[in-house]
What we know:
There is one protein chain. The chain is mainly α. The chain has 4 helices and no strands.
Amino acid sequence: MLTPMDIHNKTFSKGMRGYATDEVExxxxxxxxxxxxxxxxxxxxxxxxxxxxxxxxxxxxxxTTMTSTLMMAQDTAENVKSTARKEAELIIAxxxxxxxxxxxxxxxxxxxxxxxxxxxxxxxxxFRAKLRSLLESELAxxxxxxxxTREWVGAQPLNAQAVSxxxxxxxxxxxxxxxxxxxxxxxxEGEQ
Length: 192
């Protein structure tokens, strides 16, 4: 490419009927001036183009980096979501297992308490029956040992020396056995 200096330094040989030298030199001077201006603008545009190309490369690099960063962020977000989902499922499964274990434990505890309650009720009923039996046998013994007051008051004197020998006789054997059985039942109940 021609430079303005090439145009400025160009000389032509002179011929016989040549152009007017002053006009040619003046025209060349104008051409050099305009060409120099265009040449300078062209150089500035080339430099600006180089600058823009460099910036474009930087932006393309940034775009590539940002795209890869965005992809990594999306992958990370998906991984975090997946991990959180798995952790939530594990927490729910563990809570369900704990709930089931607590339910089994509570059910077993309730069954044991009910069995204990039933045993206590049965023991109370047995004790009640034994006590009732003891009291009834003692009452029977008392009734056999002491005659009816009406009959006894009317038939015998009330002083201690006049007590009949029948009242001092030992209790019948059935009453004694009932009393012993009742005492034994009460003693066994006390041991439990």
